[in-house]
Protein backbone atom coordinates (compact mmCIF):
# COMPACT_ATOMS: atom_id res chain seq x y z
CA UNK A 1 0.00 0.00 0.00
CA UNK A 2 1.39 3.25 -1.00
CA UNK A 3 1.05 6.31 1.04
CA UNK A 4 -0.15 9.32 -0.85
CA UNK A 5 0.44 12.63 0.74
CA UNK A 6 -2.36 15.06 0.32
CA UNK A 7 -1.65 17.90 -2.01
CA UNK A 8 -1.42 21.20 -0.15
CA UNK A 9 -4.09 23.67 -0.91
CA UNK A 10 -2.79 26.59 -2.85
CA UNK A 11 -3.50 29.89 -1.22
CA UNK A 12 -3.31 32.94 -3.31
CA UNK A 13 -2.54 36.26 -1.78
CA UNK A 14 -5.16 38.84 -2.54
CA UNK A 15 -5.45 42.58 -2.22
CA UNK A 16 -9.05 43.42 -1.74
CA UNK A 17 -10.85 41.16 -4.22
CA UNK A 18 -8.00 41.04 -6.72
CA UNK A 19 -5.40 38.32 -6.56
CA UNK A 20 -1.87 39.53 -5.89
CA UNK A 21 0.23 39.00 -8.98
CA UNK A 22 3.71 39.76 -10.12
CA UNK A 23 4.10 43.12 -11.78
CA UNK A 24 3.14 43.20 -15.38
CA UNK A 25 4.81 45.17 -18.09
CA UNK A 26 2.52 48.13 -17.49
CA UNK A 27 2.97 48.36 -13.70
CA UNK A 28 6.69 47.55 -13.50
CA UNK A 29 7.94 50.95 -14.81
CA UNK A 30 5.56 52.78 -12.48
CA UNK A 31 6.77 50.85 -9.46
CA UNK A 32 10.40 51.35 -10.42
CA UNK A 33 9.73 55.07 -10.80
CA UNK A 34 8.14 55.23 -7.33
CA UNK A 35 11.03 53.26 -5.87
CA UNK A 36 13.52 55.63 -7.52
CA UNK A 37 11.65 58.70 -6.22
CA UNK A 38 11.61 57.24 -2.70
CA UNK A 39 15.35 56.53 -2.90
CA UNK A 40 15.99 60.07 -4.17
CA UNK A 41 13.91 61.57 -1.35
CA UNK A 42 15.76 59.52 1.25
CA UNK A 43 19.11 60.52 -0.28
CA UNK A 44 18.13 64.18 -0.22
CA UNK A 45 17.01 63.88 3.41
CA UNK A 46 20.31 62.20 4.32
CA UNK A 47 22.36 64.90 2.57
CA UNK A 48 20.37 67.67 4.26
CA UNK A 49 20.86 66.15 7.71
CA UNK A 50 24.55 65.49 7.09
CA UNK A 51 24.99 69.09 5.96
CA UNK A 52 23.28 70.39 9.10
CA UNK A 53 25.47 68.20 11.30
CA UNK A 54 28.60 69.50 9.58
CA UNK A 55 27.43 73.12 9.90
CA UNK A 56 26.66 72.61 13.58
CA UNK A 57 30.13 71.12 14.06
CA UNK A 58 31.75 74.15 12.43
CA UNK A 59 29.65 76.52 14.56
CA UNK A 60 30.62 74.61 17.69
CA UNK A 61 34.31 74.82 16.79
CA UNK A 62 34.02 78.56 16.12
CA UNK A 63 32.31 79.13 19.48
CA UNK A 64 34.94 77.05 21.25
CA UNK A 65 37.67 79.17 19.66
CA UNK A 66 35.85 82.34 20.71
CA UNK A 67 35.58 81.09 24.30
CA UNK A 68 39.32 80.41 24.34
CA UNK A 69 40.03 83.92 23.01
CA UNK A 70 37.85 85.50 25.70
CA UNK A 71 39.48 83.42 28.43
CA UNK A 72 42.93 84.52 27.23
CA UNK A 73 41.78 88.17 27.18
CA UNK A 74 40.33 87.76 30.67
CA UNK A 75 43.67 86.39 31.90
CA UNK A 76 45.51 89.35 30.33
CA UNK A 77 43.17 91.79 32.08
CA UNK A 78 43.70 90.05 35.42
CA UNK A 79 47.47 90.39 35.00
CA UNK A 80 47.05 94.05 34.08
CA UNK A 81 44.93 94.64 37.20
CA UNK A 82 47.56 92.97 39.36
CA UNK A 83 50.29 95.13 37.81
CA UNK A 84 48.29 98.35 38.22
CA UNK A 85 47.52 97.60 41.87
CA UNK A 86 51.14 96.90 42.86
CA UNK A 87 52.44 99.22 45.60
CA UNK A 88 55.64 100.02 43.71
CA UNK A 89 53.67 101.26 40.72
CA UNK A 90 51.30 103.33 42.88
CA UNK A 91 54.26 104.95 44.64
CA UNK A 92 56.04 105.65 41.33
CA UNK A 93 52.87 107.26 39.89
CA UNK A 94 52.42 109.35 43.03
CA UNK A 95 55.97 110.70 42.77
CA UNK A 96 56.23 111.23 39.02
CA UNK A 97 52.76 112.12 37.79
CA UNK A 98 51.18 113.60 40.94
CA UNK A 99 54.43 115.11 42.37
CA UNK A 100 53.78 113.69 45.81
CA UNK A 101 56.38 112.76 48.37
CA UNK A 102 56.86 112.08 52.04
CA UNK A 103 55.78 114.96 54.31
CA UNK A 104 58.47 117.41 55.42
CA UNK A 105 57.08 117.66 58.94
CA UNK A 106 54.76 115.36 60.82
CA UNK A 107 52.43 116.95 63.34
CA UNK A 108 50.55 114.99 65.93
CA UNK A 109 47.60 116.48 67.80
CA UNK A 110 46.68 115.05 71.17
CA UNK A 111 43.14 113.78 71.51
CA UNK A 112 40.59 116.04 73.17
CA UNK A 113 39.79 115.20 76.79
CA UNK A 114 36.60 113.27 77.11
CA UNK A 115 33.71 115.09 78.71
CA UNK A 116 32.54 113.61 81.99
CA UNK A 117 28.89 114.19 81.21
CA UNK A 118 27.06 116.01 78.47
CA UNK A 119 26.04 119.56 79.29
CA UNK A 120 22.60 119.94 80.79
CA UNK A 121 20.04 121.55 78.47
CA UNK A 122 19.08 125.11 79.31
CA UNK A 123 15.66 125.34 80.94
CA UNK A 124 14.35 127.92 78.52
CA UNK A 125 15.48 127.70 74.96
CA UNK A 126 16.98 130.89 73.64
CA UNK A 127 15.39 132.07 70.44
CA UNK A 128 17.50 131.64 67.35
CA UNK A 129 18.35 134.29 64.77
CA UNK A 130 15.21 133.71 62.66
CA UNK A 131 13.04 134.55 65.67
CA UNK A 132 15.11 137.60 66.52
CA UNK A 133 14.91 138.79 62.90
CA UNK A 134 11.15 138.38 62.88
CA UNK A 135 10.87 140.31 66.10
CA UNK A 136 12.95 143.14 64.73
CA UNK A 137 10.77 143.41 61.63
CA UNK A 138 7.44 143.42 63.47
CA UNK A 139 5.95 146.69 64.67
CA UNK A 140 6.42 147.38 68.37
CA UNK A 141 3.63 146.13 70.60
CA UNK A 142 2.29 143.71 67.91
CA UNK A 143 1.06 140.26 68.89
CA UNK A 144 2.74 137.04 68.39
- Beta-strand percentage range: under 5%
User: Order of strands across the biggest sheet?
Assistant: 1-2
Give the proportion of residues in helices: 40-55%
Biggest sheet record: 2 strands, antiparallel
- Give the tally of β-strands: 2
| Quaternary state of the chains | single chain
The average pLDDT is: 83
Radius of gyration: 52 Å
Low-confidence stretches: none
Query: What is the terminal separation in angstroms?
Result: 153 Å
Element string (H = helix, E = strand): EEHHH
Overall structural class, as computed from helix and strand content, comes to mainly alpha
- Total helical segments: 3
Shape: elongated
Topology of this protein?
Elements: E1 14-15, E2 18-19, H1 27-84, H2 87-96, H3 129-137
Antiparallel strand pairs: 1-2
